Structure formats: structure tokens, C-alpha cells
């Protein structure tokens, strides 16, 4: 009886010790270089909520604790915004001691990041674009030189002025025409000729599928590499991912962004996220260009509201931190 009690006591002590031991922290996404999240058109670092909503926390969960969110002008050309981003990185490098940065830019932020990597590759470890219109946006093409241009620019300038006040940064510019010039396909081609690093060469291809399994147990996969650009240029690694969606089936009735995006979706004559067409998003290694997401979902926008069948954007950022870590970035 005594032996049995001793045995039970020993087991209970061992179980208690195991339960009290802290779980080992996940460091699978602990990147060598800090991550810098670069916002897009009309964006902000933190105003009413984080632009990259919940992304910092998701990255911290896999070990990426050095994550920064600069504020650049909400409405400006990509060269002007890129210069603001470059100044931020130079100051951050001086303060933190970091020699390079992993830039992850959403929408126009991906284009700004390309500019910095092109003129200062020594400061950039990688550029990742998320839903960026590298070859222009059909929505911007639709607005430019149309009756909608005037009112769109007025609204954009007003929003830009508001964001400057809301974020307490009066140095920001409110140049909506600059953004329109940055995002239409004609001016995008001019920009690309000056800063071509990582871009897809040639026409956009349909994504082929192949059977990675066997005839009796098929495992169909998509080969997104057909639209890859150069994976590395001047020591900078390039990546991209993006979403496409159908407003009828992939929306959330509580998501206010869907109301606008379901309209702008119609201005683009290919699969798109409501702002940017699939073929315009390709840069470097194309991770995927058709996640079920709209343009706001790509940053977990609208406080994380998204369609029932949409991809989890926070998981994509965590996966990418692990990807960068795996290759020593």
C-alpha cells in the first residue's frame, strides 16, 4: 500500500513538473534582418487601427520581434514615397544597428520598396510585394483622364491631409495625382524601365497544374513559377503574393470594404482583388497570385473581417517569416 502511494505521488510530481514547464517559444520565423511593413495608397502606420491589422502580433508569435511600420505620404508618386522610406531606413539603421531590412509592401508599398532596393540595395535584404500593381491597376486606368478623375483626386487629397493630421506627421504630402500617375499602366511602364529589378519578363501566363502524386492517388499542384521574375538581383531577394476574389461568393456582409471593392472589381478585365489584376502582381518568386482574398484582406484589414472561404492573411505573413528565416534573411 505504501509503495503504491509512493508511486502515485511520484507520478503526480512528474506530471506537475511537466505542466509547469514553460512552452518553448516558437522561433521558426526569427529573421536575421528586421521586417519593415510598408503601407499602400492612403495608408498609415497606426491611426484608428494598425494598417497591417494583427500582423505584428502574428510575426511575433513565430519569433519576428523586430518589426517596424513606417509612415510615408498616403498620396504621392512611388519615387517620392520611396525617398521617404529610404530616409526612414537610414535613420532606423543608425539607431538600431541593423545593416539590412526585409521590406514587405502592400499595394503601392511594394512599388516603393522596389525603388529603395533599386537605388540602395546595400540596405535591403529582401523585397516582398503583397497585391502590388507593378504593371499598373485597371482601376487607375479607368479613372485617369475620365470624368471621375477630378473628384477622385479631390477626395484623395482630402484623405491625405486627414491622415497627416491623424498620424501627427505634417511632413506628409497629399498628392493624389502623384499616386494616380504611379498606379496607371502607362506610367507604371515608365517606372519599370527605370527600376526593373525582380519584374516578370514577358507576357503573363496562365498558371499550369501538374499531378505531384500518382494516377491512383493524384495530388494536383499549381506551378506559379511560370510568372516568376528574377529571384535575386544585386543581393536582394524578391518575392510576391496576391489575392483574387469573386464579390458574389467571397465577401463578408459586415465588411465595408467589400462594398467599394465589388464596384472597382468590375473595372479590371481579369481575375483581381478589387483593385489589382492578377497579372500585375508578379515580382520575383511568385508564392501565389490567387489566394482567395480581396485587396483589404491582404493586410487583414477592416479589423480582420473577411469572406468565409478566404485565406488567412496572418498565416501567410507567418509562413513568409519562416521562409525568410530558412534562407538566412
TrEMBL record:
InterPro entries, per database record: AB_hydrolase_1, AB_hydrolase_fold
Domain annotation AB hydrolase-1: ranges: 33-141
Secretion signal, residue range per the UniProt entry: 1-25
Highest taxon in the source lineage: Bacteria
UniProt keywords, alphabetically: Hydrolase, Signal
Stored PROSITE patterns: PROKAR_LIPOPROTEIN (PS51257)
Pfam families tied to this protein: Abhydrolase_1
Protein name: Triacylglycerol lipase
Record-listed E.C. numbers: 3.1.1.3
GO-annotated molecular function: triacylglycerol lipase activity
SUPFAM superfamilies, per the entry: alpha/beta-Hydrolases
Amino acid at each position: 500500500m505504501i509503495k503504491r502511494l509512493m508511486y502515485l505521488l511520484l507520478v503526480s510530481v512528474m506530471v506537475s513538473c511537466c505542466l509547469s514547464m514553460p512552452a518553448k517559444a516558437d522561433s521558426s520565423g526569427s529573421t536575421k534582418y528586421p521586417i519593415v511593413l510598408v503601407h499602400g495608397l492612403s495608408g498609415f502606420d497606426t491611426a484608428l487601427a494598425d494598417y497591417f491589422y494583427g500582423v505584428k502580433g502574428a510575426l511575433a508569435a513565430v519569433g519576428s520581434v523586430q518589426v517596424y511600420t513606417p509612415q510615408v505620404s498616403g498620396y504621392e508618386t512611388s519615387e517620392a514615397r520611396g525617398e521617404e522610406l529610404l530616409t526612414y531606413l537610414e535613420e532606423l539603421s543608425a539607431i538600431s544597428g541593423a545593416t539590412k531590412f526585409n521590406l514587405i509592401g502592400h499595394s503601392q508599398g511594394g512599388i516603393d520598396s522596389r525603388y529603395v532596393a533599386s537605388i540602395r540595395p546595400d540596405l535591403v535584404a529582401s523585397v516582398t510585394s503583397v497585391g502590388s500593381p507593378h504593371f499598373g491597376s485597371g482601376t487607375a486606368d479607368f479613372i485617369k483622364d475620365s470624368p471621375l478623375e477630378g473628384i477622385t483626386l479631390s477626395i484623395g487629397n482630402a484623405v491625405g491631409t486627414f491622415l497627416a493630421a491623424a498620424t501627427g506627421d505634417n511632413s506628409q504630402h497629399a498628392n493624389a495625382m502623384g499616386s494616380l500617375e504611379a498606379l496607371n499602366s502607362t506610367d507604371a511602364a515608365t517606372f519599370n524601365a527605370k527600376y526593373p529589378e525582380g519584374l516578370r519578363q514577358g507576357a503573363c501566363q496562365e498558371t499550369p497544374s501538374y499531378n505531384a502524386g500518382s494516377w491512383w492517388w493524384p495530388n494536383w499542384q499549381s506551378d506559379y513559377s511560370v510568372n516568376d521574375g528574377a529571384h535575386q538581383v544585386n543581393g536582394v531577394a524578391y518575392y510576391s503574393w496576391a489575392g483574387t476574389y469573386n464579390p458574389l461568393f467571397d465577401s463578408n456582409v459586415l465588411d465595408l470594404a467589400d462594398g467599394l471593392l465589388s464596384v472597382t472589381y468590375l473595372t479590371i478585365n481579369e481575375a483581381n482583388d478589387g483593385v489589382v489584376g492578377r497579372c500585375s502582381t508578379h515580382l520575383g518568386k511568385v508564392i501565389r497570385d490567387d489566394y482567395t482574398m480581396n485587396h483589404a484582406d491582404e493586410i487583414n484589414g477592416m479589423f480582420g473581417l473577411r469572406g468565409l472561404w478566404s485565406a488567412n492573411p496572418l498565416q501567410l505573413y507567418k509562413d513568409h517569416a519562416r521562409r525568410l528565416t530558412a534562407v538566412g534573411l
